[in-house]
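Format notes (please read before filing issues)

Several people have asked whether sequences and structure tokens are stored in separate files. They are not. Every record keeps both together, in the order shown below: the sequence lines, then the token lines. Line labels are part of the format and must not be stripped during preprocessing.
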Amino acid sequence: IFTREDFRTNQILLIAVAALIISQVRNSHIRPRFDAPPRLAALPLALTLGGSLAYLACERFLDVNTLSATLFGLASYGLLGLWLQPARWRAGLPAALLLIGTLPFGEHMQTFIGYPMRIATAALVRDGLAASGVGSIGIDTILVFENGISQVDIPCSGVKSLWTGAMFLIAATWIERRPITWRWWGTAVLFAIALFLANLTRVAILVTVGAFLGWKLIAAMLHVPLGVLGFIAACAFALWLLRQQKAINTPTAASSPSRLASRQRFFTPVLLASIILMAAIYTPRPVSGLDQPAPTWAFPDTLTVTPLPFKPDEYDWLTR
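Then the structure lines:
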């Protein structure tokens, strides 16, 4: 994400999250002992193996960088859990998800669900205004009007607010020390609904002020404040729901040897052999681009031709 200017928000978030994690680790005095043998733990081991196998499959058949990076991050955190106490590993899971969340998921959401979400928002605004007696307006008119005044693309309005809101919820979960349970997932669903309603209200106000009242300049001025205020209100609602849940107890310093201690001596070589085996079978997706050089075109002498070479990203896309 550091090679493209489009991901400037992701770059800032990544640096901020990394600094926050380093600060929290230093304050909590977490020091994994990597000189000790790994501990046999079911959940971290399952996350390590499952994430690693899914990463190999993604690299071989899909070649989607964001998905591969996500699986690599999950597998790495699962591997780290073999040297951490179970309570500390579970408490640090939101931090790992927060770091993974800095990947450009917002751009993918904009591509795949951005347009359907905008169509649904415009349809609801049209029906709501018609039912309230304000007036009748078409979906295409609402979309064109919103595009005309939404010249500033802020990450807390529109479909990107779902990604930004997810980052906020995960960060609040980590700082407030709340566990990721079924109740937490219910909070996440309600938070997503609140963000959608905030965006719906924003579009309704902008259309009413700009399209019906004709105050387009005021509507353009209200675009950013309405997006920010709606996002803040939804975040405050999510934080209130989150604080209704019980916090994670402080993990104890050490635990007594488990009855699986007799298997620990076999676990390290098996784990090492598994990692070496997966590294050996790693096979990236074969390049299926141009196998032959481009043909040389013969143009008439009377035709004036100006060379226009491809940009690096365009060439990479055409030769994939």
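For reference, the curators noted about this record: DSSP finds 13 helices and no strands in the chain. Residues 37 and 70 are 26 Å apart (CA to CA).
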